[in-house]
Each structure stands twice: as structure tokens, then as C-alpha cells.
Specification:
Layout (H helix, E strand, L loop, with lengths): L8 E4 L5 H11 L3 E6 L13 E2 L2 E2 H7 L3 E4 L5 H11 L4 E4 L5 H5 L3 H7 L4 E6 L14 H8 L19 H24 L3 E6 H8 L1 H10 L16 E5 L4 E5 L5 H7 L14 H6 L1 H12 L4 H10 L4 E3 L3 H4 L3 H5 L3 E6 L3 E6 L23 H9 L6
Parallel strand pairs: 1-2, 1-6, 2-5, 6-7, 7-8
Antiparallel strand pairs: 3-4, 9-10, 10-11, 12-13
Length: 384
């Protein structure tokens, strides 16, 4: 069945998380992704546990459906092979520290000379310009520098890292978007271009509301636990046996008050709007906290669902993995992974009606496709 990126070939020189996540998104959309790895060790993520029959579950989760070839880019032979492959590629993606590709003789001007139509995507901690450009960075450093850790946690608490690698993942998503945009522009102009993605830039971009509030008020945003900074209630509440998340919007405040048996709150002028409730949160929160502890999570969910008030349980990962809605949307699927057999992976959330896409195939063994790729594209039978 046709997929949206059928016919697009990507040379993937990435490692760890941000770059491999970007190219995995494109692989799920149908692109042929050729992962170029160093001899011996390959992507260092191959060494990250836990392992399934010797295969890194970390590596599998972001490199499924790709091909792997081995090239030593520090040698003239390896560099020459890559540049010949460039002529057959639509996109090259790398996430090395700026300056590394230039030292290898494989930076954008060199690659462009071999293929003027190529999209050259570079993901790095701080981008290709600016005073920090040459510095290395990983997820935790850009999360810290970008401000998200200062907003995560309970009021008065220590800075916390969110429970996902948002520094890497967000950069990977923006890189995939940029690559798709550049491919569309090339369709019209016939010209390639370079895409420069900074992980720090991406962290700033996703905190747009925090910056908007700071610019509007001059007040520095801080951590608020699970609640929202400009409306309330919009948070997780502790119940008799767990937690539920509830979001009251529009004209639902009277219904919410009735559900928690707090009808006296309905006409209180301090709580007339979502914004006023957020401004008077210290007064409001105790009046909401105690009622929630009187019922189970399921009882509250049934109450709020009947009133069409947005709500949901605060699930652990094991419960998400069996959630009927998640399963109905095929977000957990199985792919073949020799020699293990079928393994479960998280599917793509992109649902297209005419050209559907999904997690495709296993993650490759190191260098598994070297002979196939060099033979089919360059007429050679071995890697460098």
C-alpha cells in the first residue's frame, strides 16, 4: 500500500535520540531511511538497556523500519562512498556537534556540490550559529537552559526533569516538520537547502505561553504542580484511591460545583471566571481538594463524564498500554524483530485516510544492509 513518503531516500547519520527520532517519524511515513553507522560500535544507543535477546529496547524504539550500513567516515574511502550515496538521496540528517561534519569534509557546501537538490538537516544543542554553537548538549542540559525544568514540579520545590526526553523529542519533531517543508519547497523550486535545528530553540518554542505571560506581566513563571497557570480548575486531584485530572472550561463551572456538592461556590464573585479562579487559587484549592477524597477515581470519572466535563484517570504506563482507546487507535502494535519474534512498539500517531502509515519492520542489525545498499545504489558489494 502506498505511503506518503514513498520514493524519498534519507541518509541518516544521527545517533542517540533527537536525530533517530526525526528519521523514525519519516520512516513511519514511508521514507527509505539508510542509517550510516561507525564500524564496530555503531550508534552508541545500541548499548542502552534493557535488552531483548541482546537487542537494545532503547535502540529498537527509535530505529525500527530503517536500514543500517557501516562506513568509516574518517577514511577517504568511507567519505567517498558517502558522497556517492549523497547523489542518490533526497535528505541527509546529522546531529553531531557543529564543526564535526566540516572536519570530516562532509559539511553542507561539500554535500551540496555533489547533490544540489539535497535537504541537509543538522540538529544540535544550540544550532549552527551563536556563542554556544560549538558546545555539546544533551537532553537534560537544554531542558535546564530552556526553562522547562524551572516550570516542572510543585510550588517551592526543586527543579524537575519531566518524565520524557522533551529536549530531544521536540527537536526531532521540529526537524521532521522542517524536512517535510523543505521537500515541498524543493518540489516547486527544484533546489535543496540546509535546515538548522537547535534543541534550545525548540525548548523556547514550546514554552510560548510561559514567555507570553512573562512579557505581559513581568512576573517570572514558576512550577504549579499539575494545575494550569491561567485557568482553574485544570489539574489532577487526589481521590479516595488515586488521582483524576479534570479541566473545567467555558460555562461548565456550575456543573462542576454541583458535582462536588459545592453549589455555594457558583455565584462567588472571586471564582466567576477561569482566570479569576486561577488568581484566587489559594482560596479555591482547599474547597476543592477535600471533596475529591470522598469518592473513588471511577466514581468521579462517571460523574464528570455524565456532565461532559473533560476528565481522565492519571494512568501509569502499564495502564496506558492496555487502555481501550489507545488500543482502538492502534497505538501499540507488534513488529517482527529477529531473532526475538514479534515485539510491541509504540505506533505513529499520524492517521492518514488514503495513504496510511505505521511502524514498519524491525530495527536493523549493525551493518545489516551494507552490501544491499552499496550494491543497489553504487554497484558495489562491500562497505568501507
Amino acid at each position: 500500500m502506498a505511503q506518503p513518503l514513498d520514493g524519498i531516500r534519507i541518509l541518516d547519520l544521527t545517533w542517540a535520540l533527537s536525530g533517530p527520532y526525526a528519521t523514525m517519524v519519516l520512516a513511519d511515513l514511508g521514507a527509505e531511511v539508510i542509517k550510516v553507522e561507525r564500524p564496530g560500535t555503531g550508534d552508541l544507543a545500541r548499548g542502552n538497556g534493557p535488552f531483548l535477546d541482546g537487542i537494545s529496547s532503547y535502540f529498537l524504539s527509535i530505529n525500527r523500519g530503517k536500514k543500517s550500513i557501516v562506513l568509516d567516515l574518517t577514511t577517504p574511502e568511507g567519505k567517498d562512498t558517502l558522497l556517492r550515496l549523497v547523489k542518490h538521496a533526497d535528505v541527509l540528517v546529522e546531529n553531531l556537534v557543529p564543526g564535526t561534519m566540516k572536519k570530516l569534509g562532509l559539511d553542507y557546501p561539500v554535500v551540496r556540490a555533489h547533490n544540489p537538490g539535497i535537504i541537509y538537516a543538522a540538529i544540535s544543542g544550540f544550532g549552527q550559529t551563536g556563542p554556544r554553537a560549538a558546545r555539546p548538549a544533551l537532553d537534560i542540559t537544554v531542558q535546564a537552559m530552556g526553562g522547562i525544568m524551572s516550570l516542572t514540579g510543585e510550588p517551592g520545590g526543586k527543579p524537575l526533569r519531566p518524565g520524557a526526553s522533551l529536549g530531544d523529542i521536540v527537536a526531532g519533531l521540529f526537524a521532521a516538520i522542517g524536512i517535510l517543508a523543505a521537500l515541498e519547497e524543493r518540489r516547486k523550486s527544484g533546489q535543496g537547502q540546509m535546515l538548522d535545528i537547535s534543541m534550545l530553540d525548540c525548548q523556547v518554542a514550546v514554552l510560548e505561553n510561559a514567555f507570553a505571560r512573562y512579557f505581559a506581566t513581568g512576573q517570572v513563571p514558576g512550577p504549579l504542580g499539575t494545575r494550569h497557570p491561567v485557568t482553574a480548575p485544570f489539574q489532577a486531584f487526589e481521590t479516595r484511591d488515586g488521582y483524576v485530572a479534570v479541566a473545567v472550561v467555558g460555562q461548565q463551572w456550575p456543573l462542576f460545583c454541583a458535582a462536588i456538592e459545592g453549589v455555594d461556590l457558583i455565584d462567588d464573585p472571586r471564582f466567576a471566571t477561569g482566570y479569576l479562579r486561577s488568581q484566587n487559587y489559594e482560596l479555591l484549592e482547599p474547597l476543592l481538594r477535600e471533596p475529591f477524597k470522598t469518592r473513588s477515581s471511577q466514581e468521579w470519572l462517571e460523574k464528570f463524564e455524565a456532565l461532559e466535563i473533560p476528565c481522565g484517570p492519571v494512568n501509569t504506563i502499564d495502564r496506558v498500554a492496555i487502555d481501550p482507546q489507545v488500543l482502538a487507535r492502534e497505538m501499540i502494535v507488534e513488529v517482527p524483530q529477529p531473532p526475538i519474534g514479534q515485539v510491541k512498539v509504540v505506533n505513529t500517531p499520524i492517521k492518514l485516510s488514503r495513504t496510511p502509515c505505521r511502524a514498519r519492520g524491525p530495527c536493523p542489525q549493525l551493518g545489516e544492509h551494507t552490501q544491499e545498499v552499496l550494491s543497489s545504489l553504487l554497484g558495489e558489494g562491500r562497505g568501507q
